[in-house]
Amino acid sequence: MTTQMIIRIDPEVKSRLNKLARVEGKTTSQMVRDLIENYIKERDIATYVDDLWNRIGEKLTAKKVKPWDITKAIKEVREKRR
């Protein structure tokens, strides 16, 4: 379900946004939704951390690293610190 949001915007900015939306084949509402979603994604630390873990996992998988290899490496580092 969606909800409506009313904002005030300079007429010139609105006109330029409308033109850009048409060029991209989107509605102005789609453009605003996309901009807001991207803004939140860029600033949401939880999303950033999740993405970081996913990228790390993909790289480790590509290198054929197994979970027990990671556990072993963590234990070795912790033992060296003692």
> How many angstroms does the end-to-end distance come to?
54 Å
The whole-number mean of residue pLDDT values reads: 92
Q: DSSP helix count?
A: 4
**Which structural class do you get from the secondary structure elements?**
mainly alpha
Give the CA-based shape: elongated
- Please report which band the strand proportion falls in: under 5%, 5-15%, 15-25%, 25-35%, 35-45% or over 45%: under 5%
How many domain modules? 2
Q: Secondary structure elements and their pairing?
A:
Elements: H1 11-23, H2 28-43, H3 45-62, H4 67-81
Would you give an account of this structure?
This is CopG family transcriptional regulator. InterPro entries: CopG, Ribbon_hlx_hlx. Residues 7-42 form the Ribbon-helix-helix protein CopG domain. With 82 residues, the chain is mainly alpha-helical. The chain has 2 domains: 11-43; 46-81, no CATH class. Helix content is 76%, strand content 0%. The chain contains 4 helices and no strands. 0% of the residues are buried.
Task: Note the main attributes of this structure.
82 residues, mainly alpha, 4 helices, 76% helix, 0% strand, CopG, CopG family transcriptional regulator, Ribbon_hlx_hlx
